[in-house]
Fold each of these.
Amino acid sequence: MDITIRRGTADDSGAVAELHALSWRTAYTGIVPARALGDGLTAERHEVWALRLAVDYGEPANTPELLIAEQAGSTVGFAYAVPQPDGRVLIDNLHVRPGRTGGGIGRALLDAVRLHVAERHPGADLYLEVLRDNTRAVAFYEREGGHRTAEQEGVFPGGYVLPEYEYTWPAATLTVGSRR
């Protein structure tokens, strides 16, 4: 697997938006109402990513980190880590190109996020929220050492309220490849 992980820039917004929409349509069909995955999704993701990657967050400690997984010059995955006011870091997105899951790209991205948090946010716990019915992602996060720390409802774009889980990797476990 010749995957390269690099820091993303505003120039990546289009590729990230396209992959994000494609990933949602693939992973969330049957979980999220079809209307939320319809015609406007790709344009909405383009707007979101253009804005996210253009904003000046000020201090580096407050600045989200976009990590891009590439293979042969093509974007095959991405992760977006966002520092939170409570001192934790949220993996707001971790997506792998449909058809490429199960090949280590997700693990490489998660390892890169863990390393980023350990280096740039020492002492911070890492967490994410995942739709409860996205069983493939839930299984992945559990295999990768995430601890289920909450069950809640999340609001999906379009105002849809869906059950989700929170998974946490405590700061003490944030080493590359750690599955404790």
Amino acid sequence: MTPNDVLRSLRYSLNVHDYGMIDIFALGGATVTKEQVVSWLKKDEDEGFSAINDELMARFLNGLIIQRRGARDGEIPVPESRLNHNIMLRKLKIAFDLKDDDIISLLSTADFRLGKSELSAFFRRPDHRHYRECQDQVLRYFLRGIQLKFRPVAS
């Protein structure tokens, strides 16, 4: 999954319009235009698509944390220059105020089973012997679980 995939999924799940996306970026300390947001949200094969860089995606996730939970001591966190799935998962966990059981529940809602010890391995330091890289599949099912929670399918 690319950062653009995560951005598209979050926008859909939270039902945020273009200007709402701009506001979230601003909370994270980034000034972006509507044209930039639109180009990041296009599908990879569409004309006018552009890839969002890791720093801007980190600023978006930081802005999402601030929007949903408030700023910590009024400061904007320093964005990471390199993102991976583990960092994105951690930031989303913070933004949605999720505990391990909540994440496991979201994953099971999306028909994916993961144990508590497997999950905790994603949040360890990379130099820890039990650290594990978060794979595309886990992040995809986690985002699907968020979508099912915040934008359920109408029956």
